[in-house]
Design a protein that fits this description.
Layout: H1 24-32, E1 35-39, E2 45-49, H2 52-59, E3 64-65, H3 103-112, H4 117-139, E4 145-146, H5 147-152, H6 154-164, H7 171-182, H8 188-211, H9 217-222, H10 229-259, H11 262-270, H12 275-286, E5 291-296, E6 300-302, E7 305-307, E8 312-316, H13 317-321, H14 355-372, E9 377-378, E10 400-402
Parallel strand pairs: 2-8
Antiparallel strand pairs: 1-2, 3-5, 4-10, 5-8, 6-7, 9-10
Helix pairs in contact: 4-6, 4-14, 6-10, 7-8, 8-10, 10-14, 12-14
Bound molecules: protoporphyrin IX containing FE.
Protoporphyrin IX containing FE binds near residues 288 and 358.
Length: about 400
């Protein structure tokens, strides 16, 4: 195919087109060669998939294996000390996001009942209450404050802790470990230390729950006798981690994006009926969970290219969600858009288990925040907001905001 397109050396990360837009290099590649070879920093050759159709096709095809990492530690070739992977890794017990069928389905099916649209609808009122309480606490503070610390992180964290039955009082330890796991450039030792910290905490917790079950998801999971303690701890790890890092970043980055689009923000404040669509559009536009890894188990055709067996393949969901072949004027935030078909929650058998929960949290979160703080504004110039270009899930490290009391 196109020989003129230079092969990227490492994954382009710098947000040189603006804080909400894909790196320019990624956009350029998507237009020129949506399935492109790329070189990892260690010289190992892999592939980068950026086109909407190609990403969707790939995520629907389990011959692109998810056994590409050790749990959520993944990012091989980027982590110093992590050996080059030449075959699918043995799955970490319980961590079904990194498993293929049939192991994946065996664990996931035990949890689907707990996350259905119906179950989540039943929880909605309670999630609104949790959100309101957090906003009450925030309203008592003297601005400026950090919205991440006071609102965007506590709400999803409180909700997932309660659902799983994880004591929220223990958050300092697991939030630090979980944040540590998201940092890209750190050594394997540092990642392992955070992983072991969180895993030890959760192993003790699921052991207690198996002995004395309570009314929560981890206790329910523990009732399945065929699941080992290691599997229970792994599943708990995945749920706790996925359940607060992602939504928290959406709430904070989403607020930043709305504040940077004042006309649309005014429309949203004026018409609450816009909210569900606005949440979908923010999910598409921001795609905070952007980069995912797969592993080609055989020679596979994708977008007119042949990906050889054994290749590591990276997808960019952000690039796919900004593909002009799928969404008109894709780089514009348009709260009136129909963002149906967005890939922000992935696609195929691994499609996000918590997506209904995330949607409810975001609707409650944005609705409450905008209603309670009609004069909310950034407390620093936009270019001083610290972006998470160093993390595996995108967002802001802090969002200093203010309002008139
Ligand atoms: C999987 C995104 C919130 C639990 C995924 C995947 C994406 C994603 C893209 C697919 C991963 C892959 O294909 O390898 C998001 C976003 C969220 C969010 C953008 C918030 C806005 C949540 C929440 C939970 C959750 C609140 C809480 C339980 C999971 C789990 C999986 C998953 C367990 C693995 C599913 C499987 O492998 O079958 N998520 N997620 N996520 N997500 Fe979410």
């Amino acid at each position: 195919m196109t020989q003129t397109v230079p092969v990227p050396q490492g994954l382009p990360m710098e947000r040189d087109a603006g804080p909400f837009d894909p790196p320019r290099e990624i956009t350029r590649l998507r237009e020129a060669r949506p399935v492109s070879p790329m070189l990892f920093p260690d010289g190992h050759e892999g592939w980068l998939v950026t086109g909407y159709d190609e990403v969707r096709q790939m995520m629907a095809d389990t011959r692109f294996s998810s056994r590409q990492d050790i749990g959520i530690l993944h990012v091989p070739y980027e982590t110093p000390g992590m050996p080059v992977q030449t075959e699918p890794s043995p799955p970490t017990p319980g961590m079904f996001v990194a498993m293929d069928p049939p192991d994946h389905g065996r664990l996931r099916k035990r949890l689907t009942g707990a996350f259905t649209v119906k179950r989540m609808k039943q929880l909605e009122e309670h999630i609104v209450e949790v959100t309101e309480r957090q906003l009450d606490a925030m309203a008592k503070l003297t601005p400026p404050i950090d919205l991440v610390k006071e609102f965007a992180l506590p709400v999803p964290s409180l909700v997932i802790c309660e659902l799983l039955g994880v004591p929220y009082e223990d958050r300092e330890s697991f939030q630090a470990d979980s944040a540590q796991l998201m940092v890209r450039d750190q050594t394997l030792e540092e990642k392992m230390a955070a992983f072991i910290g969180m895993n030890t905490f959760l192993t003790e917790l699921v052991t207690r729950k198996r002995e004395t079950p309570e009314d929560d998801i981890l206790s329910d999971l523990g009732r399945h006798e065929d699941l080992t303690i290691e599997e229970l701890a792994g599943a708990a790890f995945l749920l706790l981690f996925a359940g607060h890092e992602t939504t928290a970043n959406m709430l904070a980055l989403g607020t930043f994006a709305l504040l940077e689009h004042p006309e649309q923000l005014a429309e949203l404040r004026a018409d609450a009926a816009l909210l569900p669509g606005a949440v979908e559009e923010l999910l598409r536009y921001l795609s905070v969970a952007d980069i995912f890894f797969r592993y080609a188990t055989e020679d596979l055709e994708l977008g007119g290219e042949t990906i050889p067996a054994g290749s590591t393949v990276i997808v960019s969901l952000l690039a796919a969600n900004r593909d002009p072949r799928r969404f008109e004027n894709p780089d514009a935030l348009d709260l009136h858009r129909n963002a149906r078909g967005l890939l922000s929650f992935g696609h195929g058998i691994h499609q996000c288990l918590g997506q209904q929960l995330a949607r409810i949290e975001m609707r409650a979160g944005f609705e409450g925040l905008l209603r309670r703080f009609p004069t909310l504004a950034l407390a620093v110039p936009a270019d001083e907001v610290r972006l998470k270009t160093d993390m595996n899930i995108y967002g802001v490290h802090a969002l200093p905001v203010t309002w008139t009391k």
